[in-house]
UniProtKB/TrEMBL annotation:
Residue ranges of every copy of the Clu domain listed in the record: 380-622
Location relative to the cell: Cytoplasm; Cytoplasmic granule
Highest taxon of the lineage: Eukaryota
Name assigned to this protein: Clustered mitochondria protein homolog
Species, as recorded: Esox lucius (Northern pike)
Biological process (GO), any one: intracellular distribution of mitochondria
Primary location recorded for the protein, binned into one broad class: cytoplasm
Gene3D superfamilies: Hypothetical protein (hspc210), Tetratricopeptide repeat domain
Record bears the keyword Nucleus: no
């Protein structure tokens, strides 16, 4: 890792924090040791802790950085930014000597623990079969948990010996588990089954393994490899086929090499007492590939063959016994096939990219899977019946105290960077373990495998405790939510509560604690899993609640300490302190909603829970008698009746609203100040005429050059400087505050009272005015959502800065702007009324598909609750048939014999929630389901759907059934068999019960953030946008290291980081590095987001570009075809992003002289660009030009001329005749005309003189290639493989770097050169 000091060359650091990266015997750069130090120690006299990067907690980073940076405004570019620098302690090399292998070198860092060397050895090909060993230095055993730097005598070149240790039962079990993991290391079944954080990745299928070195060995593109460029039929433009099978191409590595037929625990376990005294620990039973059945004893000295058979117990050692310290050594002696296959399996395992094997932090489920053979597996069988979660066997005391772990990690120190990294890493790790445990527990609860703590009550009212986690079901049990909407409110409350937990967790106030919370939807039930407050189960709720209300505000209590703690959260969360009346009509002060309860646990910590009303109510969905909304809401039909009364505004909306008000506040104050100044100036002028000296007043800043925000900043400074002493400026502030609804009269401060309009909450008489103000503020916020946020979303979609591709990315786009999904109907209505509706067709289609699948999900949820476990696959396939099949009378198959037997034994069975003899699901018909969907759309989204069947929907809205299937499967957690489904057959249903493979949970949880890393990432982005590529690159590398430090190797944010790095590498001319970073980004996106997530599609497109730049044309094409296939599956062909993809495919095909194919893609891109960007767009001009070039290559000059003329006209009208684009286009037109004339002459000559005419060779047009090579086709730079262009690009980049070093800003650069940098790369998916 390179520190950010100037004397070390800026090489790109390798972030190796996860030891699994070291599989290939690479060197270990070591863990980050992070020392915060300042670049310019004495700039502002701040200490490193207050540096710009740190922020004060998770909110208001922007404000803090403004304040911190204000120390030295006119210094050099960097002088006022203090930066946290992460310095690496230099690593050193040790020699490792393992039994039976040559000594080898390993690079380590002083920060590492001895245990990490153990991990590396257990992963290395030649030592992976050892688990029970110690490391010794000069005969002394090293402590596993000691840091290397604390070990005496350990230095560069020391020899560490691997010494085999005696086994215990625990060690023997760990050994068997490890060997089983090695045998299964290439088997994808864990990824299909969604266990142990395994997930799928298919990149290596398209790149034939690793891209890095193997890529360099391939022939360079200059030789134009002979490659088959024809894509499969279904990928070609205009194809209507949407096959499902190619989603998971066959990976030849997954054809398992069988090493053993069976490896399982023997039925003779555990050893009887007399054998224990001989050192027997456990017995294993195996069948080798050669069909030899063997019994093995694990003893303290190792493993050996014994003489037991299946039916007779004879623990004596066989002859020969082959005693070996590891199972692998033993089996290699017994079975030649094992020896051969195990060796080649390990070779393959270590050749895989580490990112294909590292576990993801949270489980990702796949909605399709092939039929996998169910193999015998002792470890899996054992895990299923124990409550083993994560690493219990490594932790004394078995079950984990989740609450203690979650709260202790929060209490860790956070004064400086190393402490914060340690704290964030611990918080993240515990959260991901907790989410996994909670998910597993929730499934066990719904499957009926956990005993309730109140077994006597009705199933819906039952609560459960398992593995120190408390589980409750999302039903309104004791009429708790009766006034708020009953079950609908009880279903919405957990997600609202989770949002509250997320918000308070992000503010991160010391001393205030929230519960670990995970919300799981599984088999139609919603389960809330929470960590348990110590002592809460021993006492009644009434006694323990010392703050808030347990009956929605009838009785309310408060507590000084809680008020102090919550006061600290009130500014970042915009919650206003307020008084409410309790049952005795006394005013009680609160700083949260009344439902928020404060409980002091037996551990003395202050917990808050029930945070479901952290954010204020959404009045558009909360009709209140006697209250009138603003006209812009009324006009759109608000307020509307919602299912429940818990509809809240999103935190993003509150933030956007407050920011909007802040600008308004500043503008109003500026106006008044200017009027005052003008008034003052005229007075002054009168004075100067009479001869008195006049101070020079600053002219008001009204130049148009200063934007609203800059003006606001200047104004804020002038107001702050006034210090409130000037009564005039005080009055200005007062007026502006009143106008925007600020709660303070002296500064801008908007906060909301979350209890307004809560039924049952009463306010004291003296706060009537305040309450009125708050009501007005809520109405304004509701109007802001409808009149500002929805139109701004549509505007962003029109100018393509937001490009949703599927339901998930659409939801994300809504949420980023603070729009709840319940507004989806409104958003679609808005699109309908937009004049440019045609250019929003893709958005509308995705919106309709999201609306339909969400309605179907609502119906599916209640439908599933009535299905018992034995009929689950039949019920799910029946539902999907009714939803998607064209078969008019889908009939459910009820297994007849099971119905009979079920009646007999129902009395004795412990009933799982909702499990009656309910076969009502079987009577659902397609027409009934679609009627329900239409009425659900009307009642929930207030949107009218015009359809009565799946086929009508496809017809009316242009949807694809395969896309609907993907959306409903992901939303409802269904996993289906991957095969080709015939949706359109009218003679038989599409799905049978054999096609439904599994039902997965859908999990919502908090995502803890790496705050320091995120600041680095943002600063890096800012630097890149200013054009300082090198500095940006260093900051982003720094961010990558910190992200790795907190999240481990796999995370969505690391993916964004790698993508940006790759892009910078590419722009700065380092193509191999770009390729390597982007390859990691693709693998990571596949693993953490899913193989066909829109983000993954984007990453594939970028990787294709870098392969192209590296001359790997066939790989580039394969990747582009893969991206196109995924996009067709996810959103169909009619999407603006498809134009970009097709332009790129067309360009690559043109490059390999496949002109006819190239034309098909480029003409499709032309059509899409014309539709979505309009007839005057420069993108369209470029599309015309690309098509013209292909026609020119085919010597069809007339068509070429026609297209180039179109392009020329657009350029001329849009950028004027003087622009170089227009000039080049006109040059090219001249050239084409000459070529056409020349060709005509030649043809005439041939006609005249027969075949012996002298044919003039055709010239190829070169200058224009350069433009396409360096210009951007829709956000992705395309690289031509013509030597001349390469040199031009290099020269261009060098020129920029020189200019950059000499300090010329990027804006000046970009005007005079075609290399465009549009790198406003957001953290979310769209790059364009």
């Amino acid at each position: 890792m390179v520190s950010k000091t100037d004397d070390i060359p800026a090489s790109v650091p390798k972030c190796k924090v996860n030891t699994l990266d070291l599989a290939e015997g690479e060197t270990l750069d070591g863990k980050e040791t992070t020392k915060a130090s300042l670049k310019d120690p004495c700039v502002c006299g701040h200490s490193a802790d207050t540096s710009v990067m740190n922020g004060g907690g998770a909110h208001n980073h922007l404000e803090e950085s403004k304040q911190d940076g204000a120390g030295d405004t006119d210094g050099g570019e960097d002088s006022n930014e203090q930066e946290v620098i992460v310095i690496q302690d230099t690593g050193f090399t040790v020699k490792i000597q393992a039994p039976g292998t040559e000594p080898f070198d390993l690079q380590v860092s002083p920060q590492e623990m001895v245990q990490e060397i153990h991990q590396v050895l257990m992963d290395r090909e030649d030592t992976c079969h050892r688990t029970c060993f110690s490391l010794q230095l000069d005969g002394n055993v090293l402590d596993n948990f000691a840091e290397l730097k604390s070990i005496e005598g350990l230095q560069e070149g020391s020899l560490l010996k691997v010494v085999e240790e005696p086994y215990t039962v625990r060690e023997a079990r760990i050994h068997v588990r490890h060997i089983r993991d090695l045998l299964k290391s290439l088997d994808p079944s864990d990824a299909y089954n969604g266990v142990d954080c395994n997930s799928l990745s298919f990149l290596s299928v398209f790149t034939d393994g690793d891209l890095g070195d193997s890529g360099k060995r391939k022939k360079k593109g200059s030789e134009l490899e002979q490659i088959d460029c024809t894509p499969p039929e279904h990928i070609l433009p205009g194809s209507k086929e949407r096959p499902l099978v190619p989603l998971q191409p066959q990976n030849k590595d997954w054809k398992p090499l069988q090493c053993l037929k069976v490896l399982t625990m023997s039925g003779w376990n555990p050893p009887p007492g007399n054998r224990k005294m001989h050192g027997d620990l456990l017995y294993l039973y195996m069948v080798t590939v050669e069909e030899r059945h063997i019994s093995i004893t694990a003893s303290t000295r190792g493993f050996y063959l014994n003489q037991s058979t299946t039916y007779t117990f004879n623990p004596k050692p066989a002859n020969p016994s082959f005693l070996s310290h590891s199972l692998v050594e033993l089996l290699s002696q017994i079975s030649p096939a094992f020896k051969k296959n195990f060796t080649s399996l390990q070779k393959k395992r270590v050749q895989r990219h580490p990112f294909e094997r590292i576990a993801t932090p949270f489980q990702v489920y796949s909605w399709t899977a092939p039929m996998v053979d169910h193999a015998m597996d002792c470890v899996r069988a054992e895990d299923a019946y124990t409550s083993r979660l994560g690493y219990e066997e490594h932790i004394p005391g078995q079950t984990r105290d989740w609450n203690e772990e979650l709260q202790t990690t929060r209490e860790l120190a956070r004064k400086n960077l190393p402490e914060r990294l340690l704290r964030e890493r611990a918080i993240f790790k515990v959260h991901s373990d907790f989410a996994a445990a909670a998910t597993r527990g929730s499934m066990a609860v719904i499957d009926g495998n956990v005993m309730a703590i109140n077994p006597g009550e009705e199933t819906r009212m039952q609560m459960f405790i398992w593995n120190n986690i408390f589980f409750s079901l999302g039903f309104d049990v004791r009429d708790h939510y009766r006034e708020l909407g009953g079950d609908a409110a009880a279903h919405a409350a957990p997600t609202n509560d989770l949002n509250g937990v997320r918000a308070y967790g992000a503010v991160d106030v010391e001393g205030l604690y929230t519960l670990g919370t995970v919300v799981v939807d599984y088999r139609g039930y919603r389960v809330t899993a929470q960590s348990i407050i110590p002592g809460i189960l021993e006492r009644e709720q009434e006694q323990s609640v010392i703050y808030g209300s347990i009956d929605f505000g009838k009785t309310v209590v408060s507590h000084g300490k809680y008020l102090d703690l919550l006061e600290k959260t009130s500014r970042p969360l915009k919650v206003q302190k307020h008084n409410v009346l309790n049952e005795k009509d006394e005013a009680v002060e609160l700083c949260s909603s009344v439902e928020c309860k404060g409980i002091i646990g037996n551990d003395g910590r202050h917990y808050i829970l029930d945070l479901l009303r952290t954010f204020p109510p959404d009045l558009n969905f909360l009709p209140v008698e006697g209250e009138q909304l603003l006209p812009e809401c009324l006009k759109q039909g608000f307020p509307r009746q919602h299912r429940h009364r818990l509809a809240c505004l999103r935190q993003e909306l509150i933030e956007a609203f407050v920011e909007h008000r802040y600008l308004l506040f500043m503008k109003m104050a500026a106006l008044q100040l200017m009027q005052q100044k003008a008034h003052k100036d005229s007075k002054m002028a009168a004075l100067t005429e009479t001869g008195s000296p006049a101070p020079v007043a600053n002219p008001p800043c009204t130049e148009d050059g200063i934007s609203g925000l800059a003006q606001a900043k200047q104004l804020a400074e002038s107001l702050a400087a006034d210090d409130g002493s000037d009564p005039k400026s005080r009055e200005v502030v007062l007026n502006a505050c009143k106008a925007v609804g600020s709660i303070s009269n002296t500064s801008f401060d908007i906060r909301f009272n979350p209890d307004i309009f809560s039924p049952g909450v009463r306010f004291p008489e003296d706060s009537v005015d305040d309450i009125q103000k708050q009501k007005q503020l809520l109405k304004d916020a509701a109007a802001f959502l409808v009149s500002c946020q929805i139109p701004s979303l549509i505007k962003d979609c029109l100018d393509h800065s937001a490009l949703p591709m599927d339901g998930a990315t659409l939801t994300e786009a809504l949420h980023q702007r603070g729009i709840n999904v319940r507004y989806l109907g409104n958003v679609l209505e808005f699109v309908n009324k937009t004049p440019a509706k045609a250019q929003l067709e893709h958005f509308y289609r995705i919106g309709i598909s999201e609306l339909i699948t969400r309605c179907a999900k609502h119906i599916f949820k209640t439908y599933l609750q009535g299905v018992e476990l034995s009929a689950l696959s039949a019920a799910v396939s029946h539902f999907l048939n009714c939803f998607l099949s064209s078969f008019p009378d889908a009939v459910a198959h009820l297994p007849a014999d099971e119905l009979v037997s079920r009646r007999k034994n129902r009395k004795r069975r412990n009933r799982v929630p909702g499990g009656g003899d309910n076969t009502a699901w079987a009577s659902l018909t397609p027409s009934e389901l679609w009627k329900n969907i239409v009425s659900e759309a009307q009642s929930y989204y207030h949107f009218t759907l015009h359809c009565e069947s799946a086929d009508q929907v496809v017809e009316e809205y242009g949807l694809q059934k395969i896309t609907l299937l993907r959306e409903i499967s992901i939303k409802a957690g269904i996993q289906i068999l991957i095969k080709e489904y015939n949706f359109d057959s009218r003679h038989k249903p599409t799905f049978t019960e054999e096609d439904i493979l599994n039902i997965f949970p859908v999990v919502k949880h908090v995502n803890p953030k790496a705050s320091d890393a995120f600041h680095f990432f943002q600063s890096g982005q800012a630097k890149v946008q200013q054009g300082f590529l090198k500095e940006g690159c260093e900051l982003i590398n720094e961010a990558l290291n910190l992200f790795n430090n907190v999240y481990g190797a796999m995370h969505v944010e690391i993916c964004a980081c790698l993508r940006l790095l790759a892009r910078l590498n590419y722009i700065m001319g380092d193509h191999p590095e770009a390729l390597s970073n982007q390859q990691k980004a693709v693998l990571m996106s596949e693993r953490v987001l899913g193989i066909e997530h829109p983000n993954t599609i984007q990453e594939y497109m970028h990787l294709a570009l870098y392969c192209f730049a590296n001359g790997q044309l066939s790989t580039a094409l394969k990747l582009l075809y893969r991206a196109r296939y995924l996009m067709l599956l996810v959103c169909g062909e009619d999407h603006p992003e498809m134009a970009l993809l097709d332009s790129n495919i067309g360009l690559v095909l043109h490059g390999v002289m496949e002109y006819d194919l190239s034309l098909r893609f480029l003409e499709n891109a032309l059509a899409i660009n014309s539709k979505y960007h309009g007839p005057r767009s420069l993108k369209l001009a470029l599309s015309h030009h690309l098509v013209a070039r292909v026609y020119e290559s085919k010597a069809e000059f007339r068509s070429a001329l026609q297209h180039e003329k179109e392009g020329y006209t657009i350029y001329k009208n849009q950028v004027g005749e003087a622009h170089e684009k227009t000039k080049e286009s006109s040059e090219y037109l001249k050239y084409l005309t000459q070529q056409a004339v020349a060709l005509q002459r030649t043809m005439n000559e041939i006609y005249k003189n027969g075949s012996n005419a002298s044919i003039m060779p055709l010239k190829v047009w070169i200058p224009f290639l350069l433009d396409t090579g360096l210009g951007i086709v829709g956000g992705i730079l395309l690289y031509r493989h013509i030597q001349k262009d390469l040199e031009n690009l290099k020269a261009e980049v060098q020129r920029r770097q020189q200019l950059q070093e000499s300090g010329k800003s990027m804006e000046e650069l970009s005007e005079d050169s075609p290399l465009q940098l549009e790198d406003k790369i957001p953290m979310d998916i769209n790059i364009d």
